[in-house]
Amino acid sequence: MRYQSSPVNHNPLNVLTKLRQLVPNRPLRFSEAMHLAELQARRLLELAGVTALPVSCRVITDLPQIRIVDDPQLPLAGASHWDPAARQWVIRLNPTDSAAQRRFTLLHEFKHILDFGGPGLLPIGLDQHQLCTDQLAEQIADHFATCALLPKRLVREAWAAGTPAIAALATRCDAPPSATRSRLIQLGLIDPATRTGRPHEHPDDISPSNTEATEVAA
């Protein structure tokens, strides 16, 4: 797992608290939770002083409340739990995954930690089951990881500066290609059907999803 890139300047003791302070004291609609995930990812990078790609894993690994463990027996990409004896959150990563995937999983699991004890999601309908809620939570954690590894402004700058290919940008960001493609679609930089760049369109003119994340109403 690579740690080089921008310096990490945050006060690590306050990061979890500051990110959780962005959460309204009420259940969220799924769209609000996705919006909040991007807001928290952006705030995390601001607290860490990230100004360049790739985003360093130290934005998480430097936090004293977090312990990272390689677990070769893990049947999944990652998992997280609270260790009451050490009074730390433990993130377990699968060492057989690629470095880019492990970086993504690290941030994905950190989002689950952020959401622990939070207000949760509003029911989608009367037929909602826990499985559905869990699946949505996974999507939200994926979105947080994607936004953190592929920050909107830095990705747009890299794309405009001559990295107009998914594989090249994934390498530049040290992110999984699938997450890179998803982020480029979100930002309106590639066509989801053809996977081609759209340099003739300005990203700010494509869709409301491209607007900067702002606070979720309490």
How does this model look, in words?
The chain has 218 residues and is mainly α. It folds into two domains: 1-129, Arc Repressor Mutant, subunit A, CATH 1.10.10; 150-211. Helix content is 43%, strand content 8%. It contains eight helices and three strands, in the order αααβββααααα. A three-stranded mixed beta sheet has the order 1-3-2, covered by helices on one side. The longest helix has 20 residues, at 130-149. It is globular and about 50 Å long. The termini are far apart. The model is unreliable at 1-7 and 198-212 (pLDDT under 50).
In CATH, the architecture of the largest domain is Orthogonal Bundle
Arithmetic mean of pLDDT: 86
- Structural class comes to mainly alpha
- Distance between the amino and carboxyl termini: 37 Å
How would you write the strand order of the largest sheet?
1-3-2
Q: Tell how many strands the DSSP assignment holds.
A: 3
The best one-word shape is: globular
For the sheet with most strands, the description reads: 3 strands, mixed
Determine the number of helices (DSSP H or I, runs of at least 4 residues).
8
* CATH classification class of the largest domain: Mainly Alpha
Give the ordered list of helices and strands: HHHEEEHHHHH
Strand content: 5-15%
**Rg result:** 17 Å
Q: Helical percent range? A: 40-55%
